[in-house]
Design a protein that fits this description.
11 strands, mainly beta, seven-stranded mixed sheet, 119 residues, single chain
Length: 119
Amino acid sequence: QVQLVEAGGGLVQAGGSLRLSCAASGSIVSIVAMGWYRQAPGKQRELVARITRGGSTNYADSVKGRFTISRDNAKNTVFLQMNSLKPEDTAVYYCNAEHYSAWVLANYWGQGTQVTVSS
């Protein structure tokens, strides 16, 4: 089992910045990757950014060059630095952990944090 606690959402004007954090606890040794997803009203949840245990990252095309995912292994925390925010970035952002154990891959989710970008 993995528990994820997110923080850092809020209201910001277009062009502004926010930093999200996600602290993992529990069976963290079996986490192979962590990421951020978002879901806007009426839309499907989509991948925003992901970082593997080896440090490889990938981003949605819509956030490349504006968002940066990073991690602090000592604190078991993943961050999402969001710059040059746009109104279309408005969504609930969810932290995700991919947990692999006994040949089973399980996904764990945080509770979600609201990000609202005003124009």
